[in-house]
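Comment thread on ticket #2218

A.B. wrote:
> Attaching the input chain for the structure job we discussed in standup.
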Amino acid sequence: MLENFELAVALPNGAFKRRLLSSAIVAASLIMLGSAPVAWAAEEPAEEPAAATTAANAEEVPVEAEDSLPEDAAAPAAENDSAVAEVSNVQQLGRVVVTSRNKEEKAQSVPLPVSVLGSKQLERDGTITVDDLTRKAPGLTATTPNARRTGISIRGIGKASGNDSMEAAVGLIVDGVPLTHVGMSYQDFTDLDRVEILRGPQGTLLGKNTTMGALNYVSKAPSFSPQSNLEVETGQHDALKLKASGSNALVEDVLAYRASFHLDTQDGDLKNINEEGETYHERNRYAARVQLQLNATDNFTARLNLDTAEVKENSNTKPWMEDPETFANGVSRTASNGRTFTSRLARDYFKGYQPVIGDRAWDEIDIGQAKPLITENNGQALTLDWDVGSVSLTSITAHRDFLFDAKNDSDQTKFDINRGGNLVNHKQVSQEFRVTSNDVRKVDYQAGVYLLHSETDSNSRTLYGEDAGAFYATNAQYTTLNTAADLHFLQDSLDNVYQSTRIKPETDSAAVFGQIDWHITEKGTLTLGLRNTEEEKSSSTNKTATFYDGSPLASTGNATADAIRTAQLGSVYGFVDGEDIDDSSISWLASPSYQLTDDVMLYASVAEGEKSGSVQFSTTGVPQNVDPEQSFDIELGFKSLLLNQNLMLNVNFYQTVVKDYQATTSIVDSTSSTGYSSVLGNIPEIRARGVEIEGAYAITAALSVNFAAAYNRAIYTDWATATCPAEIPTSVAPVCDNTGKQIVGAPKWTGILGVDYHAPLPVAGLGLHAYLNSVVRSEQNLEAQLSQYGFQPGYGLLDGGIGLTGKFDGEYEVTLIGKNILDKQYTTSINNFTNSAPVGYDGIGARRYVGLALKASF
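C.D. wrote:
> Ran it. Output below, let me know if you need it in another format.
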């Protein structure tokens, strides 16, 4: 019966392939156009106008020192020190231009901890997902089991709770547009100029306010001269990956386009032993982007940005790793309540079935009722820039929508027990206006307005099957009905019962912000920023239970069977309006900096940010809002270029205190038998304190290394009423004191090391290119309540590649690529056991992959 569980929003058969084919045809046509002259363009391609050779084409430093030049920039005067300047010494570092503060400036001059990854390194390492970024920047971690449960953390703070009403502590910005649902980060980002990772509260400049930082993605800009790039890769697990992009002028010096397309398919590394077959933990996704840039006049430009991305893959699984027989105090879980995942399946109804638990779960899965997870992202944005002399005006108008559709096999067995998952539709419309001073003066300034409307329709659905009653019944209920005469009542208790819990949060946000740079002396600058945000939030919930065809539930005719159903469905409360939030918040920044020498800058910053509260409901439908989350952050560091600018060394010390941290916790509840109840609420206080080191060393013109390290002591400074982990029954301890413990998902130590080598070969036109990248993380607890089963031991990941480069009417490279070369088994999230599930590794990392890639640029 469960195989018929479909929803209208699911794509019809073949729709994915049709969209894929049409997008590929459009992208291929535009790419071909990019490699050939345009009929109405000039016979000889003109030099790039200044608007197309800005920081949007900047490169990172390092891995390759020449990467600090844009790929198609015209050579300006030698004294020009911008990102498009010629570099006479390829070993010199530090000329990377970023726009994380809405203006072009060298990353080494920004008085904030910012990590920058440019297009050369992103493309070389295949860095296309948020999870890939965590191997490049200190302090950045991510949990990515699926779109809805994605969590991005900086310094261990910010992990999401899989709640569609909550805002992220770490913002995501793509081409100037903040993405307000964390699921929007679950896609492949390609054809990028760079990614900037900003640590600390944001909001006095960057769109939506955040408490811990932001990831700022910048796409490559349209070019007014022909560009074509193609990359094809094949490898293990029948992998096929395709990246293509093209750019050219449509009207010389006036109108240009850029189009890109990305395809990523790969069988999974988990074999499904169910008769349904296939593999899980696979990849099946595509993305496309088209940009048009209009240079209407010398001082007015407009850029239209259209993008789409889709994921449709068998990834909805969490390998079962352990089903403890006893609680922490030694009491048998079976003797206590007769209900564990293993003991339920040991009932004779299931005829000796052995679930996949333990070491087998790294390679196998047993899934019979699931459908592929679907994630869709679409966006349209129009950016207008007008230089009116003393100031520049910017407008960014954007619309985005996001779809997530999960039909999970919740029990991960061959039986017809239940399928469940969320259907999420999210839409947002945003408008940003900015004014920026142009000339360097005693006080430079920026000011702006940011407006946002977002709305979400999230429906958590569960459809029970004919085997559900035998699984969810208590021992006594099972014994009563497990007879030849009453077995059909056991099956009828939950068969075809459909439960839905729907929420509809909406947000209206309006903010004014500004920031000034006061150049007190020639070398000393004081940066001050302020933001005021006004927000209105509302939500409603509606929990219902019917048969799948929508008809009302009717009694089975057996009291025991009805009791099984009632216990499993819980409170069915119908429609409830939430308690609206109408609140304001202030964010601010004060950051002095001093240019000690031309190559050494000292800086400090003090900042405060706030993440909005959330309209929430208890499990019985009672409004139960979550308070705002406030962060207070101190940064102190220096940025330097040493050894004749061959060594870049940046060091940053920090302390971040977050009050009313939004997470699951326990609160006093006089109606509860223990005096407490567990809710999504506020932890009184947490603190992260540590040091981050980033650097690069150009040893020779051919050999360079980049490195990073972080020590992060992130603890709960006040969490005396924490929800206890499942292994500690409430009868033993109604609450646990986690004060002083390391924060969930926060390794104390992180180390990153990369080596890059490229040199010419004796054969004319050929070169050798080799690289290695590694990241090492210390032990961390990944379970939300710090369970003893939640520890991920320390581990390291190693990626690398070796290839040949050549130039024959274009640039070519053939590279043998390896990811997770040592085949390390690890996870980024752990779910503790419940009465109906074992300990699950929710977010296992990809296993070893070896592939061969061909890259060409024309």
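A.B. wrote:
> Thanks. Noting for the ticket: The first strand starts at residue 97 and ends at 98.
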